[in-house]
Structures are given as structure tokens and as C-alpha cells.
Amino acid sequence: MPAHKNLIRIQAAKQEYDWGRQGSSSLAARLASNAIGHGFQVDENKSYAEIWMGTHTNGPARLYDSPSTPLLSLISSDPTFYLGETLVQKWPSTTHIPYLFKVLSIQKALPLQAHPDKDLAKQLQLKDPSNFVDSNHKPEIAVAIGEPLATTRSKVAKRQGDEQEVVGDTDTAFTGFVGFRPLEEIKGFLQAVPELGEAIGDSRLVSSFIHSPSKDLLRQIFGKLLKRGVEAREELVKPISQLQDRIKQSGGNLGFYNSEELARLVLKVNKQYPGDAGVLATTFFMNFAKLRKGESIYIGADEIHAYLEGDIIECMAVSDNVVNAAFDEPSSLASQVDTFVNMLTYTARPVSHWSLPAQKYQHAKSGRTVKYDPPIEEFIVLGTFLSMKNAKEEHLGAVDGPTMGIVTRGKVRISTNKGGETEQLELDEGAVVFVAAKNEINVEILEGHGPDEAGEVWWSLFGA
């Protein structure tokens, strides 16, 4: 086992879920040739959803040059050196990296979900430790890093014969459902879309909400819809089919503002999950987020979301806890839906409420790095953007905690300096590194990617 290296290449973990992009159309798969390495080959029949970079039990990173050695074991051999004194004092009971860093490549909607806060996570772990293997909360951010969906869809369609329509502007790189719409918007949909009331199945409750919208009534009405989707899913098939027919007959003009986009969403999601309560729960109750490359959203604990399509950098507090309520088999959701309905914050705001703007990173010498700084203590995310033409190098100041990085474009040389000692690695696209606490980091582009000859590295770190 290497002793006291500051710059360590690691072997990430991959996750295959059916919502991931298939074969080499998946960014996660393309990066995996170096992130996983050791003979990894893309299987065009598999869906590659995620690359994990962290120490969580469900997908632990390992030392690239010694794959039998978990990164956590190395850290545990000297936590103060690798994590830094600040972090060790803050969380003395663990030697885990406090965040879990990921690349996600999404082809269809993830399950409608929320992540529990710390108190609920502890309760769920005690009750069901096989499904809730940790007791931590899981606030997270998502940063769009892929090409515009129109471009990636065209490539996927050529490869797989998939002609699903892209919903969003021409430069939209990620779409997803995030948080609840303002209450007045939901009221308007209940008035304009009769199939929605039929799917909920409680005309008195619907009338009460229309008369006087409130968070409590939102909880009741939304809960009714989700529970019917689990307990009597067959009863939702008719109203959803009727709505789909009406959309097709009207050309998507349902008579209210932005109905064409919402109509396309209904058709798109219903094609993925026919007759599922989530088709209505997402489209008419939740905000539809459209991110350009470099734009980001923040999802706090107990906040509802369902990512739909695109390639993203994702980072969260170190946890894998999730509660689902739609876009999955009713048998799987039956034990979760009550918890889901009761745990949500029911924050009902415009989509801008969840936006997390990029900011200038104060410790970047060349100004080629931006930061995404969520209102939590476990991590921030950085993006470093270089070019062979005019911006070949960046220098990042030392921070108190550990840093994880992945090269997503080009070939770079990463070097560290701590106490006058320099270490360096030359890394191609997909390569992942761990940097011990208190290190200055220098990044130099060696080969650019594409006509702009660009290089790109994404980082997650503690202590900035």
C-alpha cells in the first residue's frame, strides 16, 4: 500500500441502471475506460448510468495501481494526513470522505424520489438496514456537463432507432423535475386538465384545493395520486390515455399557457412509464428544469425530484439513501409511498428557487475555475476549463480537506505541492484522482478535445 502520497489515481465504481444511457452513447461508459480501466470494455447492450468517486460502501473507490485496496483503507491508515485535521475534528467517528462525487448519464426518467434528512435517515436505517445502509442525509447538486440534448438525441436515434422528442430549447443539456410548482400554477392545472382530477379520484379534495390552495392540501392531493398509482394503478390508465389522446388530437394545444411543452412531456414520460402516476405527478405538480451546460441546481434533503435526461456532474453528502414513489413497479413502491408523502417539505416555488449559480472561485490563480457552493458543509464542486489555444494552465490553492477530480475532456497533467514536495500524473479523459488535504494543485492541458482544443476537469472538495 502506498504510504503518504498526496496525489493518488483511483479506480472509480460504475453503476448500471435501466435509466442510464445505453452503450457508448453513455458519457459514463465512455469515461469508464479510464475511470474503471483494467480491461473495461463497453457493452452496447448495457445501460451505464453512473460513475461513483468516493468511499461509500455501495460503490467504493479503490487504488488504481492496487485495485484490491479500497481508498477508505488508505485514508484510515492516517486520517489526519489524507482528510486533514479540520475534517477529522469535525467528524471524529468516521474516516469516510464527507461527499460522494458522481457522473450521471441519463436516458429516461429516474424514479420519482427524495432523500431523507438526518433524523429520518437514522429511523429508516434502524427499521430497514438492508435498504438504508447509512444514517446520513443526502443533499445534492447537479451540474449539466453534456452536449445539447438535441445533439445527443440525434446520435442515440441513429444508433438505437430511438426517436423520442427532446423537450427543451436547442441549447438545453439537461432536463428534470425539481420541487413543486407554485400553488396557483397547480390550481390552474387542476382546473384545466380534467383527467388530472379523475386520476386523483377525490373530487371533494380537488375542489377544496382549487378553492383555497395550501401546503397541507397539496400534501393530501399529491398523496392521493401517488397512492392510487401504487394501490390501484389500473385506474390511472384510462385518464392518462384520455389525456394522451386529447394531446394528439389537439396538436398539444390544451388551452393554457405553455401547454405544448407540457403536452410533449406527458407523451415522453408516458412512453417511458405507461400509465404511471408519475406521468401526472411530475408534469403538472412539479417544476420542469432545463439547464444549459454549466448551469446547476441544488436539491436539499426531503425535496422531491426526478431527473429526466442529460449528462451531469452530481455531488452529495456521503449517502445512498433514497425513498421512491413513482416510475417503478408498484410492488417496489408499496412500502415507500407513505414515508415519501410524509417526508416532503412541499416547498412550492418557481424553478429558479432551486438554481445554484456558478461563481468565481477565489483560490484559482488563472481564473479558469468556477465553483458551485451549496448551503451545506460537506462539499463544494469546481469546474476547471482549459484550452490549448489561450488558457493552458490553472493553479488551485490548498484547502483544508480532501479533493476528488475527474478529467472529462482532453489530456492533462495534474501536479500537487505540499511542503515543497511535488507529485504529478498525466491523465486522459475519464481518469480520476484523489488529492490529500493541504495540497496546492496545478492543472496543465497537454492535448485538447474537439475543434476548440479544450480540456475540462471537475472537482469536489471539502474545506474551501
Automatic annotation (TrEMBL):
- Source organism per entry reads Lentinus tigrinus ALCF2SS1-6
**Residues given in the record as Zn(2+) binding sites:** 113, 115, 140, 305
Textual note on the cofactor:
Binds 1 zinc ion per subunit.
Q: Where in this chain does the record put each Phosphomannose isomerase type I catalytic domain?
A: 7-147
Q: Name one GO molecular function term.
A: mannose-6-phosphate isomerase activity
| GO biological process assignments | GDP-mannose biosynthetic process
Print the keywords alphabetically.
Isomerase, Metal-binding, Zinc
One cellular component term from this protein's GO annotations in UniProt = cytosol
- Annotated transmembrane regions: none
Q: Start and end of every Phosphomannose isomerase type I helical insertion domain?
A: 214-284
| Keyword match Zinc | yes
Named cofactor requirement(s): Zn(2+)
Q: Which domain of life is it from?
A: Eukaryota
Full protein name = Mannose-6-phosphate isomerase
Entry-linked Pfam families: PMI_typeI_cat, PMI_typeI_hel
